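Listing S7. Sequence submitted for prediction.
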Amino acid sequence: MADEDLMNTVLADLKRTVREYTTAATESACPSVRQAFNNLTMDTLRLQGDLYTHMSQMNMYTAPSKALRQDVDKQIQTAQQTQQKCQQFVQQKTGGVGDYSHNPSVTHQQNNSHNSYYM
C-alpha cells in the first residue's frame, strides 16, 4: 500500500475514532469515565491534526476551500439558537432543577478583522 493511501486510511480512522469517543463522552454518566473519554478525544484530535499537517506539507492532502465568514457566522447563530431552545426545553421539563436551571446567555464575539474568510 502506498504511503499516501496508508496515511489517508489512518486519517479517516482518527476522524472516526474522535466521533466515537465524543459519543462515549456524551453518553457517560460517570464523571471519571466522561473525563477519560474527553482526554482520549483531545489526544486523538491532536494526532489527527499532526497527521493532517504532515500530509499537507507533503502535498498528500488538500485543504478544503475557505468558508465565507458570513456562512460560518450563520451556522454559529443557528447552533446557538438550537442550544438555547434545548436549554429552554430542559428547563420546562425539569422545572428549572438541575444543571440547566440557569440560562447562560451564549454570546458570539465577531472577529473584527477585515478577512471575510475563516481558515
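Caption to Listing S7: primary sequence and predicted C-alpha cells for the chain studied. Confidence is low (pLDDT under 50) at residues 100-119. The longest helix spans residues 31-57.
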